């Protein structure tokens, strides 16, 4: 695949798109939504082939759940396009404006970044979300999904392009980078990361190996989305029922997502009230997860004494602390104070999503102010870290870095600003 030529075409489309009014971009997004709906059968059959290949290759069912599409998940994908159409176009927004004493008028306005490349995991829904967020914010986008979702992504991108063309949009504003095979399978990722001047920003979504490659080799500006080692801390003042419900949801609702629970911290005063109840709550998932007890609990010495007995309760190894399991497995640890919980989290987390369950407002605010993460919750599940759930329509990923964008990235993450200065023949003395 000639990525130079693809990027040259994306560059031209991005220049046209940057000047496109919101109504025209919205009409194009509606065209893409209609084309995806019309291509439903082809998308689902390509996706079945991807899923079969992944299963044959031994991919876990938790991971298959990220890849697999259904009629209802396609409905959700199409619905999220319509939610995005309703969002305010960030391009052209005046962030600040003032007049300096010499009479020059200065305005700081939001503008697109240009050509973005998104490198992402096996979720075909990200193909649509990333395209739509880029398009609405006036950017062209090169999509580099996982090779495991290649057949699905081909059909999806082709439908989007024909939907854009049919509705007067910029069909060249979106392209799919096709992974190579064998030793060359990530050659296109290397190309993207080195494409200074051709790609304005790369957004890698993925695990440690991808992020290592990005950190070591990227020469283009990057907004990193990191892996998720996320914690739930049950405070001494927690309501046990709420604590169990939040921990259960954080672990079970989508265990292979980056914002699922990997390590539960419980204050020693609540261990007896919470841990056995949570173990019982997990037990009802045994059939679904295919694991005895529903979830394997890897415990420190103290929590092991509270929980020990059933076969899903084991002693944690050192490597389990700070581990992203992405599965029905979880580490459990008892702590003596909120300060100890915060210290532990800051030493082991990946700056993604963290929550405290407590009825103490003072400790809630202490936790929120002290934990270093992109999203810090009080009395809520960490599974809410999501552009859709935050009302952004969709997300490009969850940035775990601190510059430019942090947390779920919506439309504004793909914009920068520009100063527009109006004078009347001003010259500097
Ligand atoms: N913070 C966030 O927003 C998100 C975080 N994540 C994190 O991602 C991880 C799960 O993703 P996973 O399914 O493992 O995806 P991977 O990290 O395996 O893959 C993601 C993308 O990167 C490519 N890739 C993988 N390794 C390399 C490499 N060494 N060099 C170049 N390209 C590479 C993949 O290509 P190919 O598949 O073709 O090998 C794929 O396109 C979890 O840790 C999760 O927490 C995931 C999504 C969002
Ligand atoms: N924001 C999403 C999770 C982000 C995501 O897609 O992550 P992953 O499952 O690791 O690919 C959600 O809440 O479902």
From TrEMBL:
The keyword NADP applies. One of its GO terms (cellular component) is cytoplasm. It catalyses: L-glutamate 5-semialdehyde + phosphate + NADP(+) = L-glutamyl 5-phosphate + NADPH + H(+). Residues 329-391 form the Aldehyde dehydrogenase domain. Keywords: Amino-acid biosynthesis, Cytoplasm, NADP, Oxidoreductase, Proline biosynthesis. One of its GO terms (biological process) is L-proline biosynthetic process. It holds the Pfam family Aldedh. The keyword Cytoplasm applies. GO terms for molecular function: glutamate-5-semialdehyde dehydrogenase activity; NADP binding. Its EC number is 1.2.1.41. InterPro entries: Ald_DH/histidinol_DH (IPR016161), Ald_DH_C (IPR016163), Ald_DH_N (IPR016162), Aldehyde_DH_dom (IPR015590), G-glutamylP_reductase_CS (IPR020593), Glu-5-SA_DH (IPR012134), GPR_dom (IPR000965). It is found in: Cytoplasm. Pathway: Amino-acid biosynthesis; L-proline biosynthesis; L-glutamate 5-semialdehyde from L-glutamate: step 2/2. Its main location: cytoplasm. PROSITE patterns: PROA. Coiled coil: none annotated. It is an enzyme of class 1 (oxidoreductase). HAMAP family: ProA. NCBIfam families: PRK00197.1, proA. Catalyzes the NADPH-dependent reduction of L-glutamate 5-phosphate into L-glutamate 5-semialdehyde and phosphate. The product spontaneously undergoes cyclization to form 1-pyrroline-5-carboxylate. Belongs to the gamma-glutamyl phosphate reductase family. This is Gamma-glutamyl phosphate reductase. It comes from Teretinema zuelzerae. The lineage of its organism: Bacteria, Pseudomonadati, Spirochaetota, Spirochaetia, Spirochaetales. The gene is proA.
């Amino acid at each position: 695949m000639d990525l130079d030529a693809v990027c040259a075409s994306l560059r031209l489309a991005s220049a046209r798109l940057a000047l496109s009014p919101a109504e025209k971009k919205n009409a194009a997004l509606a065209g893409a939504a209609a084309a995806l709906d019309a291509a439903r059968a082809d998308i689902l059959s390509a996706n079945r082939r991807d899923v079969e290949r992944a299963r044959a290759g031994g991919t876990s069912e938790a991971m298959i759940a990220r890849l697999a599409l259904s009629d209802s998940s396609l409905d959700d994908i199409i619905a999220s396009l319509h939610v995005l159409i309703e969002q305010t176009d960030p391009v052209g927004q005046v962030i600040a404006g003032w007049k300096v004493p010499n009479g020059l008028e200065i305005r700081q306005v939001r503008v697109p970044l240009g050509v973005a490349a998104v490198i992402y995991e096996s979720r075909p829904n990200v193909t649509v979300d990333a395209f739509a967020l880029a398009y609405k914010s006036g950017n062209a986008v090169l999509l580099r999904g996982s090779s495991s979702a290649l057949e699905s992504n081909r059909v999806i991108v082709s439908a989007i392009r024909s939907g854009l063309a049919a509705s007067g949009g910029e069909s060249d504003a979106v392209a799919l980078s096709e992974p190579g095979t064998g030793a060359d399978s990530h050659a296109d990722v290397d190309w993207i990361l080195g494409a200074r001047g051709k790609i304005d920003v790369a957004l890698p979504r993925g695990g440690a190996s991808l992020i290592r490659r990005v950190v070591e080799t990227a020469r283009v500006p990057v907004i990193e989305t990191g892996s998720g080692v996320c914690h739930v801390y049950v405070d001494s003042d927690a309501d046990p029922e709420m604590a169990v419900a939040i921990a259960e949801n954080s672990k079970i609702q989508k265990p292979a997502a980056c914002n699922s629970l990997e390590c539960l911290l419980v204050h020693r005063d609540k261990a007896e009230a919470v841990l056995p109840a949570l173990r019982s709550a997990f037990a009802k998932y045994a059939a679904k997860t295919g694991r005895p007890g529903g979830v394997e609990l890897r415990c420190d010495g103290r929590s092991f004494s509270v929980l020990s007995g059933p076969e899903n309760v084991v002693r944690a190894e050192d490597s389990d602390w700070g581990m992203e399991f992405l599965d029905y497995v979880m580490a459990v640890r008892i702590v003596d104070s909120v300060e100890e919980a915060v210290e532990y989290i800051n030493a082991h987390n990946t700056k993604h999503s963290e929550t405290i369950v407590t009825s103490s407002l003072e400790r809630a605010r202490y936790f929120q102010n002290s934990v270093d993460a992109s999203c810090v919750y009080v009395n809520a599940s960490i599974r809410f870290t999501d552009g859709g759930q935050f009302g952004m329509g969709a997300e490009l990923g969850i940035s775990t870095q601190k510059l430019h964008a942090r947390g779920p990235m919506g439309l504004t993450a793909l914009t920068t600003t520009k100063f527009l200065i109006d004078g009347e023949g001003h010259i500097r003395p």
